[in-house]
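Researcher: We plan to redesign the surface later, but first we want a full-length starting point. Tokens attached.
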């Protein structure tokens, strides 16, 4: 199987508002879409950059889809926004 296109890349974050603030201040980006997925218990901010979207998701409940041990580790923001 050959990958021909990437639609979006998702990252779990602890604080969606802080992530949005950082991406606005550092890169001048504002979310293209924002929504709450009640069934998955997540808040989402999606940025469309060219043909690829970057999505940040924050759990809205302790038993949500994203709540696991990886959310307890502090990690730097992904270094994926590079100009061509």
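Model: Full-length starting sequence:
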């Amino acid at each position: 199987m050959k990958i021909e296109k990437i639609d979006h890349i998702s990252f779990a974050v602890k604080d969606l508002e802080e992530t949005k603030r950082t991406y606005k201040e550092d890169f001048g980006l504002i979310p293209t879409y924002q929504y709450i997925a009640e069934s998955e218990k997540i808040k989402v901010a999606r940025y469309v950059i060219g043909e690829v979207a970057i999505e940040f998701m924050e759990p809205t409940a302790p038993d949500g889809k994203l709540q696991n041990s990886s959310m307890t580790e502090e990690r730097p923001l992904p270094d994926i926004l590079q100009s061509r």
